[in-house]
Amino acid sequence: MTITRRRFLLAGTAAAGSLVVGWGALPPRQRLHAAAPFPVGGEAVALNGWVALAPDNTVTVAIPRAEMGQGIHTALPMLVAEELDLPLDAVRIVMAPRDNIYANTVVLADTLPFHPDEPGAVPDLARWTLAKVARELGINVTGGSSSMRDLWLPMREAGAAARAMLVAAAARAWDVPLAQVRTADGQLWHDLSGRKATFGSFARAAASETPQAPRLKAPHAFRLLGSSVPRRDAHGKSTGAARFGIDARPAGMLYAALRMSPTIGGTIAGIHLADALAMPGVLSVIDCSGALSGQTGAQAGVAVVANTYWQASQAAAALAIRWEPGPHTALSTADLFGAMARALDEGDESLHYSRGDVAGVHEHAAVVQAEYRVPLLAHAAMEPLNCTAQVADGKVRLWVSTQVPTLAVAAAARVAGVGTDNVELHEHPLGGGFGRRLETDMIAQAVAIARECRGQPVQLVWTREQDVMHDVFRPAVLARLAATLDAAGTVKSWELRAAGGALTPQYLRRNLGLRFAGKDRTTVEGAADMPYEIPHQRIAHAVVDSAVPLGYWRSVGHSHNAFFRESFLDEMAHAAGKDPVQLRRAMLLAHPRELAVLDAAVRGAGTAPKGRAHGVALHGSYGSVVAQVAEVSVADGAIRVHRVFCAIDCGFAVNPNLIAQQMESAVVFGLSAALGGEITVAGGQVQQTNFGDYPVLRMDQAPQVETIIVLSGEPPQGVGEPGVPPIAPAVANAVFRLTGRRLRSLPLKLG
């Protein structure tokens, strides 16, 4: 395998750092105890940075990850409750305070460019070092299907350590050996004497014990983990009791509505204020453009502040604004794809992965070629973007739904001109995130507005139209694929050359003020790390910059690279005269995990009913492997997906119920994009505005999803995103079997 310059530099930097400083060779710092005491109320005492115990036997657990529908506020408390031997209904949760022990140590390691089949010291050292860097930076982020992967050990260790302290306290008080004290259902027992006590009765005594290295349960001893526990937030969401960011109501709150430039990069030439200021309830008009100045694609904005949201929105609509359209008025979707095609025509792409000799094979064999494309996509989360902010007495208070509390605090501090210690954050559940709430634009705007409101809190709410038109979009990509077959009809060589925007440099510049040097792994993830045993491979990508703001979208680069790869594999099967499943199976002989998942999905699907066809796709991402079989029909040019059989190996299944829910969610999300999702640009303006022209799947269009969880010996892996990538190619492959037409562009259309 070829070691690219990027890999050499990254590995060399890590190794040099270890040799010169010695830091990289040291173990990561502990994640059990925070720098400051766990803030607890009443008579509760903290046993470590994650667990507090009250005399009434109630346990409070710090949760550092956002709940955005994935069920993590059910799954994470299960880890502590299992190791603590406590019923789950005795656990209450609070959002974790700011401390580096709560940092996400997985997301940085996910950016490394190594192929999963590449073992060795260099990848291991790089992952080790980046995990340490993430721990030191202390960035708390919910994304990349990383929450359970990151917290599987720390939260179990927190529960086990708390249990050990309770056992030690009871053994000391009862004057018995530690081995004779057992725990069950929130109680301590000494069977020989018949004594028992609740955890709560030993809370204070346990807090004074010196914690020993925690001993974790073996999986065979689990009583809670691995069971389908109902979601803890289901009742509140069903009754309306749940409070999202948009439901924040601090005393004296005002409301703000926005007007933003219709063109990308537009600015304000002038505003006529009199008519808006004369409207009922209107208090002020504020130019908040400076909050986003310098950001890629940022549009200027003007906010109207009023006593009610209706008053603010009506006055914002009445504002007479003269817009300076800016430098991008000629920008169009056709221009974007034209630039991508030119980049590939001129060979501007950079190599990301190579093995064997693709060029040599292609010189002496018949080459099958195809061109694929995917559009820009918006996130379209159900809860509109919003943030409530208050700036008073040199402090900032935020009430917001966010995937990045660390960056939210930093953005608020920057705009308000205060230190991060003077920012108080109240985190709320998210009404959908999908990567959009990894951004801080709405937070910066809200703080800029609140800064002018004389200490009163103000809630900013974007309209659905603003949410769609001013999103940070999933990149559009053009891909050219070429492959050959050997005499036995097996794929011998494989080349993917793609062009499109690179989102990571934009994200880092926008949210962290950092310059990104190197190749963006998200452009080729799912393409440069595929499991198929093809001896000759070449994966390259050309970065084509534009003014369109780009951001992380659920499953990121996997979302389009799976479509390219799995669709073209079916093309190769057709060229070879082989069954698509058998073609894949022949290239997975050294990948039993992928093979088992593929077989499970195909076996579960059985045979397609008359008038329908099955399409298959397999894809691995975020540590998990997913295979999907889509059962599809076509009538009057319309594609209908009736059933989806979804097999997943996500390591140990912490809560099978949540896994099934996430597979259903991923299928619906991915199908929405596959069948109707498309953002287009003309005259420098996004053309879509709402669900009328940017549709999401309706209830009567949703297929039945059958989830098959494949037993695995791996630790828990990602669940929220891995179900998205395979659905588009599975449907496209089924359409080909029905119609003989190969659809190489998304959204899939027969008309």
UniProtKB/TrEMBL annotation:
Recorded GO MF terms: oxidoreductase activity
UniProt-listed Gene3D superfamilies: Aldehyde oxidase/xanthine dehydrogenase, a/b hammerhead, Aldehyde oxidase/xanthine dehydrogenase, molybdopterin binding domain
Signal peptide: none
InterPro entries in UniProt: Ald_Oxase/Xan_DH_a/b, Ald_Oxase/Xan_DH_a/b_sf, AldOxase/xan_DH_MoCoBD1, AldOxase/xan_DH_MoCoBD2, AldOxase/xan_DH_Mopterin-bd_sf, N-heterocyclic_Hydroxylase, OxRdtase_Mopterin-bd_su_IorB, TAT_signal
Residue ranges of domain Aldehyde oxidase/xanthine dehydrogenase a/b hammerhead in the record: 239-327
Entry-linked Pfam families: MoCoBD_1, MoCoBD_2
UniProt name for this protein: Isoquinoline 1-oxidoreductase beta subunit
Natural source organism: Pseudoduganella lurida
